[in-house]
Every structure is written in structure tokens, then in C-alpha cells.
Amino acid sequence: MKVGIDGVLLGAWTPVLNSEQNILDIGTGSGLIALMLAQRTEAHVDAIDIDAGAVKQAQINVDASKWSDRIEVYHQSLEEYAARNTRKYDLIVSNPPFFVSSLKAPNQARSVARHAGSLTHQQWLAYAVQMVKKQEEFVLFFLSLKV
Predict the structure, then answer these.
(1) Could you list the residue range(s) of the whole structural domain that residue 123 is in?
(2) Number of folded domains that form the chain
(3) pTM of this prediction?
(4) Strand partners, 128
């Protein structure tokens, strides 16, 4: 997964209070946002992705960082993770697939990362609301919501 401007901006602009203890990065890709948030906080960061190649790349990046003791990378879909997870998060962040009905890229992994396919945006938000602590926050690219 290439590092894009959207990921860099999301990692830099995500509001953090340094009181976050647990952060979830949904669709971590290369792990960029998880690493940026670990750098900016003292929180434990769980990073999930459905793409095996992305998870492998994220794990390599996490292992090479000085925050590796606070970041866990999981190869799971959001549905699987939400079903098995019992942790509530102070902050959930994602640069979610944002294309709904547009031409897909010839590269399958890129299409999965950029196009809403297996989950609708409403389903994605429902899982995020299920895992965020009451009255806490989750951040999407250029969108911050209080729940």
C-alpha cells in the first residue's frame, strides 16, 4: 500500500488529547496512521486490515519503529474483529474505502482498499459505534463525529 496524502493528513490532523488509552485503526494499510498516532500519544493501538499483504507490510513497519510495543496488527475483517473484540476504544480512526459506484482499479488490492464493497458505509459506522467508548470519538478522513 502506497502512502497517500489522505493518510498523512488523517494521521496528522486526528485530534488527540493524550488521554487516549486505546486506539483502533480500521483498514491500516501500511500502518502509517497507527504509527503516527502511537508517536503522538501513549495509547495502545490496534490496527486491522483485510488484505494479507497490507498486514505484512504494516507489521514490518511497526516492528521497525520504536512504538512496536504499543501497536498490534491484525489480519481480520471489520466484521470478524468486531464480533471477537471486547475492548472499547477511546478513538477509532480510519481512511475508509470511499468510492461506492465508480470504476474500479485493475489492481484487486487497490480496489478493495478504495471501494466500499463488502460493507456499506452505514454498516462500517455501526461497527465503529459498537466499539467506541460512550461519548468518545472516531475520525474518518476529513470527518470527525462525536457519538
Answers:
(1) 5-105+114-146
(2) 1
(3) 0.78
(4) none
